[in-house]
Amino acid sequence: MNMMHVFIFGIVEGITEFLPISSTGHLMLTARLLQINQSEFVKSFEIAIQLGAIFSVIVLYWDRLVKGWEIWKRLLVAFMPAALIGLALYKVIKRYLLGNSDAVLWSLFFGGLFLIVFELLHREKKNAVEELSAISYPQAVLIGLFQSLAMIPGVSRAAATIIGGLAAGLERKTIVEFSFLLAIPTMFAATALDLFKSAHAFKPEQSVSLIVGFIVSFAVAIVAIKFLLTFIKRHNFISFGIYRIIIAVIFWLAVK
Question: Sign of the CA dihedral 49, 50, 51, 56?
């Protein structure tokens, strides 16, 4: 992996982390396009640079995070399902799912179909939760369970949490912002666990790649977050569902 590859990965991560299209899936497909083998370092690199995107959330929502203990309590409750399931299935996920392009493509395709059908059927309630601090703990648990589905590459953590939140009765902007914030404990924990387990896979000179990927994904993610907040004011997520299906079909045809 050269520095141009690092920049490309950082851009892809920054764009896709908070959109309902799967950042992990797109990073894996990017590696395939660039003909980069899914080595232990590459798998860990793809996880670690997600921290750059997460730091963009911290910067943009700093005031709310500092003053929002009620929000933090709900984030921690929503984080627990993924934490417990992730610890239990870490080896299985790392060995059999990460790097599995077939799993990514099927997840993108069926995830896109589900997103389209859900949006066509979903009707937001008049009493939908508008404040992050008003999210109930049962709603937080449900969102956390949906987030756990994103351990399958291609599912999309953002898509899973947003659908879970909409199904639980949250207003669209509220669950989108909650999804942003929930990425903080989730991705910090996932990256810390992976770096602890895979520290032997890194060479000293590879730390530069991690730092550059982090910075690029941070800068691009800030733009992506602002875009999504503007987008949801007038649109639903059907277009993202269509995109997921198209990208899956294109890769299937390319493989054949």
Answer: positive
